[in-house]
Amino acid sequence: MYQLLIVDDEPSVVDTIAHTLPWQELGVAEVMCAYSGREALELIKKHVVDIVITDIRMPGMDGIQLMEQSAKFTRSTQFILLTGYAEFDYAKRALQLGAADYLLKPVSDSQLIESIRRIIQQLEADVAEAASFQLAVEILREHQPALKSEVLSKLVEEGRLEAEDHLALLGISFLPEDSISLVLIRLEGRFSRYNQRDRMLMEFSVFNMAEELMGPYFELWTCRDRHEYLVLALKGKEDTEWEEGLQLLPRMCSQLQHHVMRYLKGDISVVIGNPVNYPDAVQAGYQSAVKTMRRRIGKDVGLLMTVNDPDSGQRVAALKTLHEAPTLSHLFEAGMWEEAVRKIENIAAELEENWDDSPELLAEWYHTLVSACYRYAHANGETLSRLLERIGVTESIPELGTLLSVDRMMEWAVGLCRKLSIENSEELHSSRAMVIEQVKAYIHEHLSEDVSLHILADQVNLHPVYLSKVFKLETGEGIKEYLHRVRMEKAVHLLKRSDSKIYEVTTAVGYLNTPYFIKVFKKEFGMTPQEYRDHHSIRQQ
């Protein structure tokens, strides 16, 4: 049985609905009434409400605001909006927020009953689905578009094909060496004034329109890039001639512009890329499309253009190695200094081989390095000047003009990485040394107790495996070996310097079983504790 709330600033409307419908037959156990949005919100805060029937136009808090505020407390409550003809756009906004239904006033009992029945059927279906394996399938299906989009975004922007082994699971049928075409779409005009949620709805609509227009000829794979362009990767279907599809593509894109203007009331500009091989040439194809959008469309709106750059035959200086992941900034931040040096060497090799000490690219490399230094310093809670002083760099970052050669740039960059690496190692060694001292102190103070690796790890808030490895790296012996050595040294001291009984020595060095202690001691020194005591007692005489 379900809980239902009726909200309207006209009491007669609320009372009429509350007392005339066959609630028990519909599966509604309790009907609550509210005569304002704020009163309704207080009820939603305090009670489980499955369905809300609310007027849109109310003084104070209206129906839209009630939906927005309710979402802070519950995601499962379903809303039915009651609205007049003049409020259709207002109701449309409610549907964007997830309203289950809207009904035009005056609403008939049959309309309201049908809407409630449909919602309850959906609620019951959701409950049944949540208890079955189908839920897992639906979760994958729900996130599949986002996952597919992320994979394509990484490919076009960074040239990286992630989750390659799971492409089929994500519903991606693109195969190596497939010929594909990229289409770039820029939402313009009124779209720029939309908030994030509404813009996402518009983007979803554009993708759907593109699917309807191009689906008969192409398989579509879509994403949004960092420039907020929509990217379509198109692959010809097996039963369709690829060349035929390419010939029709400009017409399809023109139709897409027309549909967006008619149904979404906005402009888009479209760039059609040249066919490229998947996946190796996808990033280059994407960059050509972006360049065409920037250079040949610019700030104009509603244009359609095919990539046909007159400079396409020329080699454009672009340091590919510099921007490939992981970036210098990420390597610095992670303290991966050897990897950073290798990346610097690879950048230098690319510059020497392809660009002959290009001042433009050297400047780009320089500023990227400086940016990585600033980010590393600030991530460590200090200024760059303080960091440089601490690692022994007496001068600040050198001027660009002194580094305008690959050799000088690499010498400075590698030297900086080496000094940062040394400083990082010293800091690491210092922090580890402190941990080791804490562990040793605890062992000496609690030698008579049960001193285990897990107990020691808890004392220094480290994972046992990590502590064991760090201890071995810093001291050259394992914790177990160190503990054994300290126990034997303490046992020897007690046997030589005290009159303690053997069982008392056993307890003092942390052994619970005297025979076992005797066995361990004899293995270490070739004689029992008593024999050791007697031997050293005779020698002292």
According to DSSP, the number of beta strands is 11
Question: Radius of gyration, Cα only, in angstroms?
Answer: 36 Å
Q: Mean of residue pLDDT? A: 85
Largest sheet, in brief, is: 6 strands, mixed
Helical fraction equals 55-70%
In terms of per-residue confidence, which ranges show pLDDT below 50 for 5 or more consecutive residues?
310-316
Distance between the termini: 95 Å
**Tally of individual helices:** 22
Class by SSE composition: alpha/beta
From the spread of the alpha carbons, the general shape counts as flat
Share of β-strand residues: 5-15%
Give a verbal description of the structure.
With 541 residues, this protein is an alpha/beta fold. It is built from 22 helices and eleven strands. The protein has helices at 11-20, 23-26, 37-46, 63-70, 88-96, 109-130, 134-158, 196-214, 242-264, 282-297, 320-323, 328-334, 337-355, 359-379, 384-390, 406-445, 453-460, 464-475, 479-497, 502-508, 514-525, 529-540; strands spanning 2-7, 28-34, 51-55, 78-83, 101-104, 179-187, 218-224, 230-236, 268-272, 276-277, 304-306. Helix 7 (134-158) crosses helix 10.
What layout of secondary structure does this protein have?
Blueprint: E1 2-7, H1 11-20, H2 23-26, E2 28-34, H3 37-46, E3 51-55, H4 63-70, E4 78-83, H5 88-96, E5 101-104, H6 109-130, H7 134-158, E6 179-187, H8 196-214, E7 218-224, E8 230-236, H9 242-264, E9 268-272, E10 276-277, H10 282-297, E11 304-306, H11 320-323, H12 328-334, H13 337-355, H14 359-379, H15 384-390, H16 406-445, H17 453-460, H18 464-475, H19 479-497, H20 502-508, H21 514-525, H22 529-540
Parallel strand pairs: 1-2, 1-3, 3-4, 4-5, 9-11
Antiparallel strand pairs: 6-8, 6-9, 6-10, 7-8
Helix pairs in contact: 3-4, 7-10, 8-9, 12-13, 12-14, 13-16, 16-17, 16-18, 19-20, 19-22
